[in-house]
Amino acid sequence: MHRKYGDKGVTAVSVCLIVDKPLPEKVRTRVETFLKEQNATLANVLLNEDSKVWEERLKIDGPPCVYVFNRDNQHVVKLVGDQVNYSVIEAEVTKLLGK
Asked: How would you write the pLDDT of the chain (99 residues) with one tens digit per residue?
């Protein structure tokens, strides 16, 4: 969706939650390799916080999780775990682009 709707102002950000606490450089390499294999050009953030911090702040038990915000930075949709469905996400994004 980043590539598909980027010219319409859609911005995607990937956040990698470091859950198992391997060495950060190993995680960075794994994430960068995965994103390169996916031809991803979006921004990526590595969150190296204790899981209790992001569980509380993001109100989730663990990944995956997707948030969709509108142009006014208001939270529109939050999908967690099995709810993560890219058809639903794309439908929300296209609905927001139509406004």
From this structure: 888 998 998 988 888 877 666 667 787 888 889 989 988 888 888 887 888 888 888 888 878 889 999 988 888 889 988 899 989 999 999 999 996
**Closest C-alpha among 66, 58, 67, 62 to residue 84:** 66
Residue with tokens 């204790």, as numbered in its chain: 50
The total of structural domains in the chain comes to 1
- Identify the CATH number of the domain in which residue 31 sits: 3.40.30.10
Q: Can you give the pTM of this predicted structure?
A: 0.74
